[in-house]
From TrEMBL:
Gene Ontology molecular function terms on file: metal ion binding
Keyword Secreted on entry: no
The protein's name in its UniProt record: Damage-inducible protein DinB
A matching Pfam family: DinB
Similarity-based family: Belongs to the DinB family.
Keyword annotations of the record: Metal-binding
Record has Metal-binding as a keyword: yes
Ligand binding (a divalent metal cation): 141
C-alpha cells in the first residue's frame, strides 16, 4: 500500500484577513456616518437596540479582545466603559480602535491563530475563530444598521464598497 502526502495551500494570509476585516470596519464606519445624530442614538426597529448601542458593542469587543489575546488576559469586556453622546465621539473611538486592532493583530503569529483562547473568560475557541466571530458580529450588526437606514428612507452605503 502506498500513501501520498498532499501539500495543503494556505487559503489566505493573516495580512489578507486583517485587510478584509478592515474593509468591513471601513464600511461599518460609513454606516455610522450615514445616520442622522438623533436617530443614531434613538431609532430602532422591533425592539432592537439603536445603532449607537450596536456600534458601542463593536468598539468594546474587537480592540480589547485582540489585546486580551496578545496579553493572555481573559477578563470580560465592558460596553459600559464607553458611553458616547455624539456621533463624532463614536467615529473618533472607532478610528482609535482601528489602530488598536492593527497594533495587536500584527502581534499574533501564524501559530497562535490555531491556539485555543478563552475569550473574555467565556468562549474557548481557537484564536482564528474568535477573530472570525468579531467580523461576523460586525456584519450582523451592520445589517441591522442597513435595516434602520432603509426604514428611515436613507440609502445605505453599497455593501460591496468596503475600501
Amino acid at each position: 500500500m502506498t500513501t501520498t502526502a498532499t501539500a495543503t495551500k494556505q487559503f489566505m494570509t493573516s495580512d489578507q484577513l486583517l485587510e478584509d476585516w478592515q474593509g468591513h470596519r471601513n464600511l461599518t464606519r460609513r454606516v455610522i456616518e450615514s445616520f442622522p445624530e438623533k436617530e443614531l442614538f434613538e431609532f430602532s426597529v422591533g425592539g432592537m437596540r439603536p445603532f449607537a448601542k450596536l456600534a458601542t458593542e463593536l468598539i468594546s469587543i474587537a480592540g480589547p479582545a485582540l489585546k486580551g489575546i496578545v496579553e493572555g488576559n481573559m477578563e470580560a469586556y465592558s460596553e459600559e466603559a464607553f458611553n458616547p453622546k455624539t456621533k463624532e465621539e463614536i467615529l473618533n473611538k472607532w478610528d482609535e480602535e482601528t489602530e488598536v486592532i492593527n497594533q495587536y493583530f500584527g502581534q499574533i503569529t501564524e501559530e497562535r491563530f490555531q491556539e485555543t483562547f478563552n475569550l473574555f473568560g467565556q468562549y474557548e475557541f481557537p484564536v482564528y475563530q474568535n477573530i472570525l466571530y468579531f467580523i461576523d458580529n460586525e456584519i450582523h450588526h451592520r445589517g441591522q444598521g442597513y435595516v434602520y437606514l432603509r426604514a428611515l428612507n436613507i440609502e445605505p452605503p453599497f455593501f460591496w464598497e468596503r475600501f
